[in-house]
Amino acid sequence: MVRRSKSSFFTIGLLILAGEAAFLLPFVLPRIFRPTVLEAFELDNVQLGQCFSVYGFVALVSYFFGGPLADRFAPRKLMAIALVTTSLGGFVAATYPSFIVMQIVYGYWGFTTIFLFWAAMLKATRQWGGDTNQGRAFGFLDGGRGLVSATIGSLGVAIFSATMGSIDGGIDIEQRRAAFRSVILFNSILVALVGILVWLFLRTEEVDSGSAEPAHEPVTPTVVWHVLQLPTIWLLMAIVLCGYVGFKVTDDLTLYAKEVMFFNEVDSARLGTLLLYLRPVVGVVVGLMADRTRPATWIVTGFALMLVGAIVVGAGVIDRGSYVVFYSTMFATCIGVFAIRSLYFASMQEGKIPLHLTGTSVGLISVVGFTPDIFMGPVMGHLLDSSPGEPGHQYLFWLLAGFSAIGLIASAVFRCISGTATD
Q: Which helix (H) or strand (E) holds 282?
């Protein structure tokens, strides 16, 4: 087992901070403040979904080319540039531009957060984990990202609530916009500051992964073909795709609370933040457990939980006043989602994917696995807007149940054909 120094733990801490900061503006804020985003930007669910789709299309190309890039250049430089450029899009969004301009901003974010950032972050994390601590590395990464997201989300809710003032007397649209602008600007500045920290202090080359593999290898069609011949790559594509559908559906939870359970805007945002606090707990726990057993075991468990939660919501079991059932179902579903999300890239070691081809492998897996960025936004928007109220949410969770079942099968097969978690 690789011995960890203080600088090594500082490295994973900085990776965690950067890993969530990159996605605060395009995804975390809409997840926590979805009702407010729709109103402040004068969008409906379909239009917001179209913004996510533009992001997804740009990201699709960026995954493919950004993966090999991460196998050629230092993560510090790629990640720092990505964070600073991502923050610039936030300052544009704070002006509440037109729908067309917001689509352009989301396309811009698709490039900055994926082409330069995504594979570089994952490769640096895998290097930190070494040969025997992949579960810990990726569990800490996603769990820590959840803690960062929840903490910043809490600050955002506090800023929003304080700026907007009391909601008892009624708040007009301009007050809501002014309050939410403060949240956007706060997050934009924060993302830029994290980028500066990464540039100054991230030193992944100091982390000894314990691997004798070459640090860089020219990425050729032959190399790509070699990676695609690994059956575990294809199974991980399916696992990531189905797990990411679950993560995208968590964007609906605050809207579900508002429209079905009749929470107000602040309370629904608080619920979204509360659920985010599950992420660090789940990430750390399943990460440590995965290193003692196998990551695939916990991915299978996560899909099972996600399937049960989706069926409960889809079947309409939750009554308007059944808060215990509501919270229990939301918590169980999110535990499953976060467990899968924490470990699907930790499974690369279990699936015998070479360390020096991590960037290329991540790029190929992501091209398929993160296609929900393209289709889930419009699908969610169509289901919610064409069937207002509870029926639209039920249809969405039945869709989640289908993907959960597919993911459960894929992860079970992966567990059967892959080797042990450690050699």
A: helix 278-292
